[in-house]
Each structure stands twice: as C-alpha cells, then as structure tokens.
C-alpha cells in the first residue's frame, strides 16, 4: 500500500505494486499481544506477502519457525541464502497450508481477497489464527459490511503511532491496525477483556 499523502508527482514515483515494507515495531507489537496464544516451539507462521522479508526477520528473532512467500520478486530472492523458507508463490492460489498462523501486511487493493483466502485455508487441526495489517478506516466502507459479518475479527488492534513504511522525509499520515481472527474458544481462554478492541503501544526501538 502507499502510506503517504500523494500528489500527481508522488504517484509517478510510487513503487511497483505499491509495495512498502512493514517496520519491525509494527510486527513486534502484534507478537507481544499474541504471546498468550502463540508458542515459538510449536507454531509455524506463514507470511504470504513477504516482500524483502522484514516481517520474517522479526519472526526469526522471536524464535518462530516460518514460511515466507510472495507473488513478486522484490528483494526476497536475495534473502534466500539467509532464509531458506522463502518461496515464490501467489497466496491467492494456495490450496492448503499446515501453518498455525498466517500473518501479513496484504496489498491494500487485495486485502479483502487475502482475508477470504486466509479464512478458506482454515484447518481445524492445525490453524490457530490469522492477522492482517490494515488501514484503521478499512471497515468504514459499506461495501465491506458483508465481509465483516461473514468473517468478523476476534480482536481489532489499532496502533497508537503511525508506522513509517519507507525512507521518505515526509511524516507518515496513515493510521493502521491489526485485525486478528481466532476461534472463540482460543481467544476467550487467554484474554479476559470483554472488548474486541485493544490499543497497541509502540515497542521500544533498539
């Protein structure tokens, strides 16, 4: 997605497929929240829109096994020597996965398709949940009402800061949120809050 206010000149400079990598703190905040329901020794994470592997690097640092893939090459082919788990693949054509979690920042214009696909890949024996990074206004569109009703997230996690998706000197302007889908019994067994919205604070940067 393109995370900055755009002028005609900016649009001409936009990266192909509107690809902008996810800052580490954005992924770290999600994993911090999911500590009660994730186990690095048992869980495998699928990152299906990995780009150059920024999110996968966080998974590696946290000790998770993971599989990262992308339809487009970006920089991830260069990372294959470091991460043997990278694959060239279109997530929307995936028929099955044994991963326990799917976590990604989907292309904005394909977010709905990614949500539907992740839900369709649910396996009662191995799946524990999936999470998508979306604009905070994502659910404000009337056209997405059926999607929300058919696939309501277990929890919505608005970020209390605006992630910086690229090296531009311009201040980021997009408010973002993680939406997490989990089975009701998994969610209620680990989280005592009655609300489905919890604010995420920014982790300390190293």
Structural summary, described in words:
With 206 residues, the protein is of the alpha/beta class. The chain has helices at residues 8-13, 24-33, 54-61, 111-120, 145-150, 184-190; strands spanning 44-47, 65-70, 86-88, 101-104, 129-135, 155-158, 176-181. It has a seven-stranded mixed sheet with strand order 3-2-1-4-5-7-6, sandwiched between helices. α3 links the parallel β1 (44-47) and β2 (65-70).
Order of helices and strands: HHEHEEEHEHEEH
- The residue-averaged pLDDT reads 84
- Helix fraction bin: 10-25%
**What characterizes the major β-sheet?**
7 strands, mixed
Number-wise, the strands total 7
Strand portion: 15-25%
How many helical elements?
Answer: 6
Structural class: alpha/beta
What's the arrangement of strands in the largest beta sheet?
A: 3-2-1-4-5-7-6
> What gyration radius follows from the Cα positions, in whole Å?
16 Å
Head-to-tail CA distance between termini: 26 Å
Shape: globular
Unreliable sequence segments = 1-12
Write the layout of secondary structure elements.
Elements: H1 8-13, H2 24-33, E1 44-47, H3 54-61, E2 65-70, E3 86-88, E4 101-104, H4 111-120, E5 129-135, H5 145-150, E6 155-158, E7 176-181, H6 184-190
Parallel strand pairs: 1-2, 1-4, 2-3, 4-5
Antiparallel strand pairs: 5-7, 6-7
Quick tags:
alpha/beta; single chain; 206 residues; 23% helix; globular
Summarize the entry for a quick read:
This protein is α/β, with parallel strands linked by helices.
């Amino acid at each position: 997605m393109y995370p900055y206010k755009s002028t005609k000149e900016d649009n001409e400079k936009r990266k192909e497929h509107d690809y902008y990598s996810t800052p580490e703190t954005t992924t770290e905040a999600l994993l911090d929240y999911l500590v009660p329901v994730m186990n690095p020794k048992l869980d495998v994470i699928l990152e299906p829109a990995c780009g150059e592997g920024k999110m996968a690097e966080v998974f590696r640092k946290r000790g998770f096994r993971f599989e990262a893939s992308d339809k487009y090459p970006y920089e991830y082919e260069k990372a294959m020597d470091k991460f043997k788990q990278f694959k060239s693949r279109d997530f929307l054509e995936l028929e099955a996965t044994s991963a326990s979690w799917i976590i990604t920042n989907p292309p904005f214009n394909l977010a709905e398709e990614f949500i539907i696909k992740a839900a369709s890949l649910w396996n009662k024996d191995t799946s524990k949940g999936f999470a998508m990074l979306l604009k905070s206004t994502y659910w404000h569109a009337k056209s997405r009402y059926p999607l929300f009703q058919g696939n309501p997230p277990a929890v919505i996690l608005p970020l209390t800061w605006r992630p910086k998706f690229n090296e531009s000197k311009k201040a980021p302007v997009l408010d973002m949120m993680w939406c997490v889908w989990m089975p009701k019994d998994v969610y209620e067994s680990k989280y005592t809050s009655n609300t489905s919205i919890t604010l995420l604070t920014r982790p300390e940067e190293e």
